[in-house]
TrEMBL record:
The keyword Oxidoreductase applies. It comes from the Bacteria. GO terms for molecular function: oxidoreductase activity, acting on CH-OH group of donors. It comes from Nakamurella sp. A5-74. This is SDR family oxidoreductase. The lineage of its organism: Bacteria, Bacillati, Actinomycetota, Actinomycetes, Nakamurellales.
Length: 291
């Protein structure tokens, strides 16, 4: 039995700052991706998954869990994140599964379609699509939020979801699962994350609508909405650096979550166990109330 208030007492978000997208290997107190804990039981045997942002954080924990449940996994990530992606490839292969590495930029429209084509070619198909890659940069005043950042946040978080799903649809057989990563920010937007929070609300609405459209085809669309989770995103401009030591303390559990605590939600929504779960948002947020 686990007391969730005591779990991860040894991992403390530190006030560190990383350039670019940030690396898991750049976190001083390492995030838990479930490397030493996740045990599979064949829940995704023979499945073929594509995960964007699969090199680190929540996407990487999900990739490890999917592989240990029996799925082959393709990972999309930025070229600067190659070292993190190589490490996750090793863990997928240790689980006896195939890993496909697809570096590139989700703001490049052609890339969103390419990753689908390359996954289908390398794995012989696609039946789980996890749209998890995301951009989050805090800006305190709207006057300082540039048009470029506003557009890039939407291009990464929203346009890429639309484009990747659109490219994937011709390949997805009945029984497939599409899962997007939203956020508590969709419901409780921070004053300094106006662009980011808006993309997450858009993701929720997009998925609720699309879920109804695709259900008759046997394709289920669902969303995971994390609360504050200790990942590179937060140390690479996602939060003001000086606020990181308190990161997650506002939750009823009083601590930040770890990527390993998210992966089971994605496994559930990907597997046939959730066959009657459609257009749902699964909140993994330490107890913060949501509508
Ligand atoms: P992370 O930094 O480990 O993962 C985000 C990934 O997005 C990066 O690894 C990168 O590969 C990818 N990415 C960003 N911009 C990209 C681009 N232009 N092209 C290609 N890939 C790009 O951090 P994470 O926290 O695990 O983030 C995963 C998802 O979870 C994101 O959608 C994020 O918004 C969401 N989320 C995170 C938290 C949190 O507290 N960490 C909370 C709610 C939601
Ligand atoms: Mg990363």
């Amino acid at each position: 039995m686990v007391d969730p208030t005591k779990l991860y007492a040894d991992i403390d978000p530190q006030a560190i700052s990383q350039d670019g997208p940030g690396l898991d290997s750049g976190l001083r107190d390492k995030a838990d991706l479930g490397e030493d804990s996740y045990r599979g039981s064949g829940r995704l045997a023979g499945r073929k998954a594509l995960i964007t942002g699969g090199d680190s954080g929540i996407g990487a924990a999900t990739a490890i869990a999917f592989a240990r449940e029996g799925a082959d996994v393709a990972l999309s990530y930025l070229p600067e994140e190659q070292s993190d992606a190589d490490r996750i490839r090793g863990l997928i292969e240790d689980a006896g599964r195939t890993a496909v590495l697809l570096p590139g930029d989700l703001t490049d429209r052609a890339y969103c379609a390419d990753i689908v084509t390359q996954t289908v070619e390398a794995l012989g198909g696609l039946d789980i699509l996890v749209c998890n890659g995301g951009k989050q940069q805090h800006v305190e005043k709207l006057e300082d939020l540039t048009v470029e950042q506003f557009e890039e946040t939407f291009a990464t978080n929203v346009d890429a979801l639309f484009l990747t799903v659109k490219a994937a649809l011709p390949h997805l057989p009945a029984g497939s699962s599409i899962i997007a990563t939203s956020s508590i920010q969709a419901y409780q937007p921070s004053e300094n994350l106006v662009d980011y929070a808006s993309t997450k609300a858009t993701i929720n609405t997009f998925c609720k609508g699309l879920a109804q459209q695709l259900a008759p085809r046997g394709i289920r669309v669902n969303v995971v909405a994390p609360g504050p989770i200790w990942t590179p995103l937060q140390t690479a401009g996602g939060q003001p650096t000086e606020e990181l030591p308190e990161f997650g303390e506002q939750t009823p559990l009083g601590r930040a979550g770890q990527p390993a605590e998210l992966a089971p939600a994605y496994v559930f929504l990907a597997s046939g166990e959730s066959s009657y779960v459609i257009g749902e948002t699964l909140h993994v947020n330490g107890g913060m109330p949501t509508p």
